[in-house]
Amino acid sequence: MSSALSRSSTLSSNPPPPPTFPSHGIMPKEITTALPFLTHNPTFDGRDVIVGIFDTGVDSLARGLNGDSKVVGIVDCTGSGDLLCKKVDPKDDALATSAGPVALPSAVPDGTTFYVGFKRAYELYPKKLISRVSAERKKKFVDTCKAPLAEAKEASDKLEAKEDKTKEGIKARANAKALVTSLTSAASSYTDPGPIKIVVVQKSPDAHPCAYILDMEKDFPKGGSPPALSDLTPMYAFDYNRDIAKFDDSSMLNYCLNFETPTEDGIILTITADAGAHGSHVSGIVGADLGEESMNGVAPGAKIVSLKIGDSRLGSMETGVGVVRALTEAKKRGCHIVNMSYGEASAVANSGRIADLIDEMVYKDNIIFVSSAGNNGPALMTVGAPGGLNKSIISVGAYVDTDMMVSDYSMREIAGGGTNFTWSSVGPAPDGMNGVDIIAPGGAITSVPEWCLQKNQLMNGTSMSSPNCAGCIALLLSALIQKNVPYNAERVKKAIFNTAKIVPDLNTLVQGNGMIQVEKAYEHLMSFKDEPSEEVRFETTINRVATKNGVYLRQHDECNKRQTFTVTIDPKFGFNDDDRSIETQTKRVEFEMRMNLKLSVDDCDWISFPDHVVLMHNGRSFSIEVNPCNLPSGLYTAHLIGYDSSKPERGAMFKLPITIVKPQPLDDSDAAPNLGQMNFAPAERKRFFITPPTGATYCDITVKDCRSPKDDASSRLVVLHTLQSFPHTPYRDNEKQRYLQMNPGETSVTGVACTGGVTMEICLARYWSALGLTEVSCDVRFRGVTPTPETVNISAAGSGTHVRVQSFASDEVVSPVARLDKFETYLTPKDSKIEATPGSRNVLLDGVTRTYSLTLTYNLTLEDDASITCRIPSLNGYLYESAMESQFVMVYDSSKMLLGVSDCWPDAIKCKKGDITIRLQIRHSSIDLLKKFEGQVLAVERSLKSPVTLEAYATHCDMVRGGKKFGRRSLPQGNMASMHFAVPSRPKEVKEGDVLKGTVNYESSDSSLAGAGKRPKGWKITVAIGPKEKETKKEKADVSEVKDERGAVEKMEEELRDWKVGKVEKKIGEDDFDALYEDALKSCEGWLPLLSAKVKHLEKKRSEGWEKALVELVDDVVKRIDTDKIAMWGGMKHDLTDGHVAKEKKDLDRDKGILTDCLGRKCLALIGEEGWDAAVKDLKKWVKVEGADKYGVVEIEECKSKKLGGLVLGIVKRMDDGSGSKGGLKVYKKKDLLDIRETIYEELGWSWLVEYNRAWKVLEAPSDYQEFN
């Protein structure tokens, strides 16, 4: 009998040892020759070089970054960690804080000033950490609720079983149910406030400021002794003492402090914690020092300065403020290199406030700027800003070599060798620049912060290739500094670009100059260290505004004609030629270079150019001719390169990129091009350039996996990426990217909006790590109708609108569907303030120019809970290319609690109904420019409660009469149709001046065709809301006039009485009330409005003995009111057209209002006293107290007096922020209601809810608005 073991392959009792782990791929350094360079030059390891990391922040205790001299600076440039601590004077040897008193040491130096504030830790935590910690805290909270909830439920059930129908029994049951509801609601609607940190800053004369960081929950237990500063360890600024601390053992998040100079408002303390793991990982690639060759960063001897640009309030999104401050700090802290693994799609290249400042830093301050090209490939024109769109920056693409594939990505097999990552962004830039300058390894396993609960992590992206390149440059600078070889940014760039290794089969738009090579770059630098022209920047442009930094032809017409371009080469000495020293001026005079010109590719007969040019300072121009007429459809790239004829071995002095994207021949009759069946080599991209037919508005792209399910059941990852390019438009607005996980025989259809006549790239790529045969077919079908106008705007005049549609590309079926789902409200600022931003961090690179801020305040009242999006059309969508330094919006509720923030790409912010305040800050160094925005209108977008559908009619008459609808019609190719959209009914929540927003689709889906059958996202439609139509009022009978038979003196006395009472009412609660009251009483004795004013004054002023005086006065007022008449009046019908009856009703309504107000205030005076029950009973005779926030104080106190805590909790929840109590007996603020809730929790013994309530009380009722900083 055979066993399973005997049937299997023979197992050795002594298996061979596993192969050695291929460690070189963990931190790739061989392919860049960084590793052999370090092996031969161990002291050129980055020492003496400081690298600034523009990122999410760096954890200086992360593995490899925790050396004493590794991270030499940590700065939060965003303001997200700022806390304005306000000056507090000690009282009774203690300081008052939001959480309670803090005991001072027995001996405090004379002249010491204390500042106090609080910070919600979740404002500092990374998003992923919040998710982990909040889940842990929620579980603990919910578990704590379970036992009390079971007890409350059992007690409630017992009361229900008794069926006590007395008034007290009913109340008791209601209270028991309310307790159950409160506990259930607490558990189900738990919103984690997170840890709250109480901060005390101490500033003593001749001493560095320090701070004490306390935890509200741990250090301020309810009923416990006040914490003492003498028991705590002070923290000093990282720059002074390198102090680092953890928030707590649960989060494992490390932080440090920095202090700004104190102002009249207080002192700004910056609590710096990283906004994500990204920055530490980037730093690890640059320079982690672990003492292990395979794990060390590229330049383990380099020092790191963490310059946090990722704003924690925005989930680590960068802001203009963060980037500008980081530039200043990089210079201030002596950085030699800056790495920025951040970026966004941009509308314009080499333009904008930030771009100008980066140029200044590189060209004037000689700091080398390295940045990621972007992770938005594989289509062309996907490089982002600042990396791929600034000439002064070294833009880095991402490459994966075979070592990385084996060790980092655990691939089963290596097919095809190394390649760039599929998603690595590709040039050119919109202005013709190459977009990618260099490539480097785009992945690594290295350091991450301790809060990740692991020491290393694999990350990939151009975010990783950029620091690898920066680390390589740090090695080069380390060598130059140690050898005392002068350099500037341009000299280093020339060495890197001219020695990079071209990777076969990768287009220059993907790899730029190639893979950075440290050894050869070093040889270049040393060989030509005495060549002064290595430091000269050759500014190369052409005579074309849109693409001045390179020849870039993309559209059908321009790719089918011969064109001549004027090329200008302008040698630059310094930044903007502003160096007027005799040394530099002499260099300008003496400069002359005889240059040979050559193309980067052979056999390029479509470019004609001169062979030579003699170049002097002030520049030279020459012409080139580009003739792409005979080129087949496809991508063509070349560079016109200028060499120093005397030393061509120096490499390129300049490169002019020339890129031709030639689309397939234009054929408006071909609306369904077939791209055919294609087999992909490993990591291969196939690009197709098509001009959509005139009038096409969308296309359906069908991709089919051509493999047979019988032969292969595994999936293949294929990337589909389409893109059209438009002037001054970021690529993200006109691209479609999908990752298709294709199974054998599977078909996927993707709808893509497009514009006819504009070249569209359709890129299909086999994902870089996909293994096995990848074979697909691709069909494209252009469709759609073209509307005129494209955007439908219906005016406030209520006339509707007329739209024509035409089917240019194909036969279509038209069935218009217009849907409005949002509306915008437009707000003008209620307050405007321009002021200088304080502190050295707001001074620009020149050390003199200060940034100013414009703060605009807007008010909005929400009638319901809503999510609002705050839009500034003149600024939104622009960051790096923006003319302004920054824009930032902060939204607060009526209690000044911060609800959310947004910036140039605004997200929705959840708000509760009531009054909200919106503050917008715009920053720039020019006050005159800021003044242009003082009247900036803010658009607040909200969703409609129910979407509104617009009806489309066949004719204008039908629209006016509400007649025949447009319906569904066939529209043969080339034909037109006309329709009219009527003005919709106004939704209740929409007001005059608002604008309804939505989309309209004209095509009708056809089940016989692939795809959705309509243009993705449709077309925009808006409806302006005009004045509300005048309502037709029901005709009312005239009220008979009552003749006033009083004499002139009597009338004058009444007017004088009312005037005096009005003056008295304005002084309620003030010291001079009594004098005015007594004077008025002489002529108005017994006048109820005057007596009512006295009652209100007594209750508001609350002087000694006020309770007794108020009760006596109220009793007197009640006696003077004919209560029987008021009661009888309400039970009878009256003829209000009778003038006498109408006047009597008016007087009785006034008296009833005075009666109920006085009775209510009598209740307030008798709280906790004998007579309370009777007073409440009297009040309830006239008004319904239950459920009325106006009488909330009576309702609450009545329940409290009867120990009905559950009902009190229900009332507090109903009253929410207290806004409903305005105009009532007592106006409650949010904090007042939270105090009441806390008291009830204490009485019930629900200690965990007491702490929960205390935390939210601090957060929901701050003393002032949180600042932008």
From TrEMBL:
Residues 1-13 have a biased composition (Low complexity). Residues 46-507 form the Peptidase S8/S53 domain. Residues 811-984 form the Tripeptidyl peptidase II second Ig-like domain. The active site is at 55 (charge relay system), 278 (charge relay system), 463 (charge relay system). GO terms for cellular component: cytosol. The keyword Protease applies. It catalyses: Release of an N-terminal tripeptide from a polypeptide; Hydrolysis of proteins with broad specificity for peptide bonds, and a preference for a large uncharged residue in P1. Hydrolyzes peptide amides. This is Tripeptidyl-peptidase II. The lineage of its organism: Eukaryota, Sar, Stramenopiles, Ochrophyta, Bolidophyceae.
